[in-house]
């Protein structure tokens, strides 16, 4: 038996013995799952136990080094683990920006103390992170950011405002870009800083979205004192760290919305969209009755499958130690536009049922779909707009002149 095959058998036995029974068959959607952190409320004891047993083994972050609490698995072993979890229909025990964004960045750019301090807490889901990049005058043109960091001995004093900070009201820490020097070109003089959201002077105010939810906030810093030891990389050289993190963010967004993100409600594993279409539009000869919808469903299923396989190749390369490159921009555009097409189609399939907003008379699933459809409009903005991704592809992939 090969090493990998025996790893598979051990993994399966371990999962069968240790996964709480209530987690079997649970599927998560897009951004729903356990985000962790001090403010997190588990929806069940099983959910809490699932996180604990997986974190104990380091399998919330399977390929991260064991010395920092990760699983220490090879890329091939991590893939086997993912396959076995899928076979048992087990959800990821933990999701969030710690695992997908700041963790990989700290592993690459953080010093030993910073890794020892933060990585184990991410693996165990103890600290929830948010991202403080965008500002009222700095979105696509991120390097124009103005949040000031003034040095006072061993501390920086931070003043300024971040905007569109997803889940800032639920987060414990923020990774932020601040300006320590405004004298040179704008990409210089930016510092990548970790800030405790409980520090005096940090305040958040939620912003209501078109979907009726408030998943993001304005984050204000007023004379917030942050130790210089919280700088990741060199002072004033945060732009390099920031760009590397954006590569992880784009891959995560593409994967979340375009690849694995297909919503399910336990109807069948075959094809969620065609089940939904049959349920709402009827069936003829074992197929969706409406020919136009049938074609659209098939096209999206095919595109989703092809895209998920393409993203998987990049994830395999990442597990083998490669950093995401400019191709993450391509995935970001395609994945988010695929998600928007998928929600457009779901709303068309639901027809009048998708017109509900709240109250009785509408299925919860339809209400949720309508709000998610509106939420999906933001997919081609968050993490860098589609136009900005096209610029990156033009310059860095195609080598066109600026
Ligand atoms: C759901 C959601 C969650 C988010 N979460 C976070 C978060 O957690 N943390 C965070 O820091 N930010 C977050 N953002 C902010 C996001 O990164 C910015 O909205 C995005 O970078 C665009 O910036 P902007 O909104 O200032 O738009 P602008 O930069 O003002 O862009 C306006 C329009 O001009 C176009 N444009 C701008 N420059 C160019 C150019 N050079 N060439 C061609 N077209 C151009 C854009 O494509 C866009 O259509 C989030 C955004 C959304 C929608």
Task: Please provide a written account of the structure.
- With 402 residues, this protein is an alpha+beta fold.
- The chain folds into three domains: 3-123, Butyryl-Coa Dehydrogenase, subunit A, domain 1; 129-236, Butyryl-CoA Dehydrogenase, subunit A, domain 2; 241-397, Butyryl-CoA Dehydrogenase, subunit A, domain 3 (Up-down Bundle).
- The chain has helices spanning 3-18, 45-57, 75-87, 97-109, 112-123, 238-259, 272-281, 291-319, 327-350, 364-376, 386-397; strands at residues 129-132, 148-152, 155-166, 173-179, 190-196, 202-207, 216-227, 231-232, 283-284, 287-288.
- The strands form three sheets. It has a four-stranded mixed sheet with strand order 1-4-5-8.
- The protein is globular and about 75 Å long.
- The relative contact order is 0.09.
- Bound molecules: flavin-adenine dinucleotide.
- Flavin-adenine dinucleotide is lined by residues 130-134, 139-140, 164-166, 216, 378, 381-382, 384-385, 387-388, 391.
Q: Any guess at the CATH architecture of the largest domain? A: Up-down Bundle
- Helix proportion: 40-55%
Number of helices: 11
CATH class of the largest domain: Mainly Alpha
The biggest beta sheet, please?
4 strands, mixed
For the largest beta sheet, what order do the strands appear in spatially?
A: 1-4-5-8
């Amino acid at each position: 038996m090969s090493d990998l095959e025996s790893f598979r058998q051990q993994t399966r036995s371990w999962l069968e013995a240790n996964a709480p029974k209530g987690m079997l068959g649970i599927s998560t959607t897009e951004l729903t799952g356990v985000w962790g952190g001090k403010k997190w409320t588990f929806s069940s004891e099983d959910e809490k136990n699932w996180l604990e047993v997986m974190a104990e083994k380091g399998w919330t972050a399977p390929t991260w080094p064991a010395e920092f609490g990760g699983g220490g698995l090879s890329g091939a072993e991590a893939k086997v683990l993912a396959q076995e979890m899928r076979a048992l229909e087990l959800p990821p025990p933990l999701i969030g920006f710690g695992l997908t964004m700041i963790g990989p960045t700290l592993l690459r750019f953080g010093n030993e103390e910073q890794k020892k301090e933060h990585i184990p807490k991410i693996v165990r889901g103890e600290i929830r992170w948010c991202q403080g990049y965008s500002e009222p005058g700095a979105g696509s043109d991120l390097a124009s950011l103005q949040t000031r960091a003034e040095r006072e001995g061993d501390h920086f004093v931070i003043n300024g405002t971040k905007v569109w900070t997803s889940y800032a009201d639920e987060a414990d820490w923020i990774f932020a870009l601040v300006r320590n020097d405004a004298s040179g070109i704008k990409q210089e003089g930016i510092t990548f800083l970790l800030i405790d959201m409980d520090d005096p002077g940090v305040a958040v105010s939620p912003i209501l979205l078109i979907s009726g939810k408030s998943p993001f906030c304005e984050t204000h810093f007023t004379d917030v004192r942050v130790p210089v030891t919280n700088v990741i990389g060199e002072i004033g050289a945060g732009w390099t760290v920031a760009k590397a993190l954006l590569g992880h963010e784009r891959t995560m967004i593409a994967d979340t919305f375009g690849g694995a993100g297909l919503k399910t409600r336990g109807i069948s594993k075959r094809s969620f969209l065609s089940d939904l279409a049959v349920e709402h539009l009827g069936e003829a000869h074992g197929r969706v009755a409406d020919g136009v919808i049938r074609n659209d469903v098939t096209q999206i299923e095919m595109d989703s499958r092809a895209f998920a396989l393409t993203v998987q190749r990049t994830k395999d390369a990442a597990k083998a130690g490669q950093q995401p490159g400019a191709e993450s921009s391509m995935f970001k555009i395609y994945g988010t536009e695929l998600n928007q097409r998928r929600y457009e189609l779901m709303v068309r399939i639901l027809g009048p049922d998708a017109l509900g907003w709240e109250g009785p008379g509408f299925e919860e699933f339809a209400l949720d779909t309508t709000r998610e459809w509106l939420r999906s409009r933001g997919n081609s903005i968050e993490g860098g707009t589609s136009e900005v991704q096209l610029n990156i592809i033009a310059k860095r992939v195609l080598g066109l002149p600026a």
